[in-house]
Amino acid sequence: MNRTTVQRLQNSTRAVFFLVGVVSALWSCLVPIVKQHAALNDGALGLLLLCLGIGSIIGMPLAGQWVGRWGCRIVATGGLALAGTLLMPLALLHDVPLLAASVFGLGMGLGAVETAMNIQAIDVEKQSGRPMLSGFHAFFSIGGAIGAAGPQVLALVQAQPWVSVLIGELGIIGLFGAAWRGLLNHAEPDGGPGFGLPRGIVWLLGLLTCIAFLAEGAVLDWGGVYLSGERVGFGIAPGWGYAVFATAMTFGRLTGDHVVAKAGPALIMAGGSLCAALGFALVVYGPNAPLLLGGFVLIGLGCANIVPVLYAATGRQSVMKVNAAVAAITTMGYAGILAGPALVGAVAHVSSLSVAFLLLAALLVFIALNARLAR
């Protein structure tokens, strides 16, 4: 494959990761609008959001099967089209059953395109002959930042939420149209496997992915609560914890491919997980505000490249076909995102958030102990 073709594959992969980040952020901005339109209380909103998770967990293994039959291009196109199209009704609907069906479809679309793009990313990295997964995942973060900022800017001129969605959808269509030709279109020779339950090393890789996503989700869901609760005495605004974490993670992923190439994936996985574990310890025990916020920075830097390295290792294993294995660990990872807030909350209810964060630090050490899997 010539250099121009490989470059097109790389750019298309970056573009679709970026677009998935945009769609996810636009949905995040719509959540309070949906709650207001449908007059939902917190409990009802939680059930509605559960539809997103159920749709994603169904869409991910299905996407692994579909990629085997039709290739990444068709699955990514269908998933992104479904997710992007459903943003508009979510900005306008008031009927709860219709909202639930739309959120379920959004979850299925996002689950499908995320699985397809990680399969493509692994293939493109192999064809490129150098680490690239961290950089691909960085574009998801960049897309998320831009997708979240756009509606806030438009809100300053009192634009309706559907206007933000429309502009976002037009941008998605334009960028995806330019990227479409660079998506892989080959299927498995035998049509690919059906649903593949993780087994052997894939099961362990999925468990480690689940832990990494659990740690990331804990900062998103509980970092602000922790700063405004148990650590309120430091006077840090609740949003600062996630802000410095997300900034550090984006920086870590933008530089991650170079670092992985120099140090090797096993060392990055071990060092990153220990760095994140130290970050949680600093968040709990830091004696002043700079060290506490430094803990969030270490969590972001440490977690930045764990998941990309685990996906790369999934692409090298031979126990399962890559598309089925990627679908399996993506589903397990997303299960960590879904279950994480409830698990952390349960530990905090029985003990405290400090204890929950220290348990996450211990789980990150477990990742470090299994870093050999990344070789």
From TrEMBL:
InterPro entries: MFS, MFS_trans_sf, MFS_Transporter
SUPFAM superfamilies hit by this protein: MFS general substrate transporter
Gene3D superfamilies from the UniProt entry: MFS general substrate transporter like domains
Membrane topology recorded in Swiss-Prot or TrEMBL: Multi-pass membrane protein
Subcellular location: Membrane
Organism superkingdom: Bacteria
Keywords from the named record: Membrane, Transmembrane, Transmembrane helix
Record-annotated membrane-spanning stretches: 12-33, 45-63, 70-92, 98-119, 131-150, 162-180, 201-220, 232-254, 266-285, 291-312, 324-344, 350-369
Pfam families attached to this UniProt entry: MFS_1 (PF07690)
Name of the protein in its database record: MFS transporter
Source organism: Asaia spathodeae
